[in-house]
Specification:
Helix content: 25-40%
Number of helices: 13
């Protein structure tokens, strides 16, 4: 596959005018100006177009949610409070109608996060095309996910519990998280001692088996938290549990402790720039400026959306979150990296995706302009070296009803 004559935005390096990207199988084998297409290559003329890496969405339930009114189509909220054995790659539905809709706007890979309870299981970085779990999953498990509870009572129409009841529930949730980490650590201490004199074999427990990599720091623990008091509580918890490989997801108030996060080398997945202020006395752009503040403070970060079941259908709007951040203090180059290279690096696959470099997977998009501009069209997506069909359920329905029979008095097209 040869993409010729376009403006190549490598993200990790210089912009190449009249550039060519050569792909062999699933990998990029050459990038540069004036490269000749090999004999027999399928050439795609990109003259006047732009070639960018595919977007990486770092917070979604795509593939886990389909029709919210049908319980069997919703894998976003499992029962139970401690579910470290949940695995997103097993739950992922590659036939979801949400996937091509998201892909059509340049998103090629997503971090799929299971839900339900305080410890939610492990996420997986998934491609938005493929047949089997093995060829769709870029990497799994990516991280263990912990939902940190709200530290202060919520006063809203949907919250019917008293302040005391909410405080009790908060304390119970924190205790459940603490107990889970303590129990898992004790379990592995006992398992590792098996074979020593006088130490019996212990029964397997799939919950604590699933936490081994997180406890050893082989994969990060991602804490879902937004408010300042939540973040500070998480940092105290990490100190007590000796957790060093940590990522924050949400991060609405993360800029307020930016120096501390930088010192600890804790990255932030900013979950939703297109959000209303959380507090009544905050300016309208409080969420818009978070990425810019983190960038200026030197904190590693990337941009996603707010996640959750309702956001699955809107995952395609990822570039617009980055665009809003660029309009409110984040440089344009940093905004583009925040949805391409930075999430790939934070999730441990920066050597495979996120930029246009030799040896990386050919996850690309061809556009007619800047992909952070809402008026720009993504004209072609290349995923894992394959040209994707640029159609969705919506486009099929449009063509179906656009071709419907029309009577003599029908409005002229």
């Amino acid at each position: 596959l040869a993409l010729t004559g376009g403006t190549v935005h490598t993200v990790s390096g210089a912009v190449i005018e009249n550039g060519t990207v050569l792909v062999d199988g699933t990998r990029i084998i050459a990038v540069g100006a004036g490269l000749a297409a090999p004999a027999g290559a399928h050439a795609v003329d990109c003259t006047g177009k732009h070639i960018y890496p595919g977007f990486v969405h770092a917070n979604t339930v795509l593939g886990l949610a389909e029709i919210s009114t049908i319980q069997g189509a919703d894998d976003t909220q499992e029962t139970g409070n401690v579910n470290p054995n949940q695995r997103a790659e097993v739950m992922y539905n590659p036939d979801s109608d949400f996937l091509p809709v998201t892909r059509l706007n340049g998103v090629t890979s997503v971090l799929v996060i299971p839900g339900g309870g305080s410890i939610r299981g492990t996420s997986a970085l998934m491609h938005l095309d493929g047949w089997t779990q093995e060829d769709i999953a870029l990497t799994a498990p990516v991280a263990m996910h912990v939902q940190w509870p709200s530290m202060t009572p919520v006063h809203a129409f949907f919250e019917l519990r008293s302040d005391e009841e909410q405080a009790k529930a908060r304390d119970q949730s924190i205790q459940a998280i603490t107990d889970a980490f303590d129990d898992a650590r004790a379990y592995w201490k006992a398992r590792d001692a098996e074979g020593s004199s006088g130490v019996p074999k212990h029964d397997d427990d799939v919950r604590w088996d699933s936490m081994r990599k997180a406890l050893k720091g082989e994969i990060p623990v991602i804490f879902h938290c937004d408010a300042l008091n939540q973040i500070r509580a998480v940092l105290r918890f990490c100190d007590k549990q000796n957790l060093s490989n940590v990522i924050l997801l949400g991060g609405y108030d993360s800029w307020r402790v930016a120096d501390e996060l930088k010192r600890r080398n804790i990255a932030v997945i900013v979950a939703g720039v297109l959000s209303m202020p959380s507090r009544g006395d905050e300016p309208y752009d409080e969420a818009f400026v978070v990425p810019g503040r983190l960038s200026r403070a030197g904190v590693r970060f990337c941009i996603a959306d707010e996640g959750g079941g309702f956001a699955a259908a809107l995952a395609r709007n990822l570039p617009q979150h980055a665009a809003m951040a660029a309009a409110f203090g984040l440089s344009r180059d940093e905004a583009l990296k925040a949805v391409t290279l930075y999430p790939a690096q934070i999730l441990g696959v920066g050597d495979r995706i996120g930029s246009i470099e030799v040896g990386k997977l050919a996850d690309l998009q061809i556009t007619d302009g800047d992909p952070l501009e809402v008026a720009t069209h993504c004209e072609q997506v290349i995923l894992n070296g394959r040209l994707m069909a640029m159609e969705t359920r919506q486009t099929r329905l449009f063509h179906k009803y656009d071709a419907r029979p029309r009577g003599a008095k029908a409005r002229k097209r």
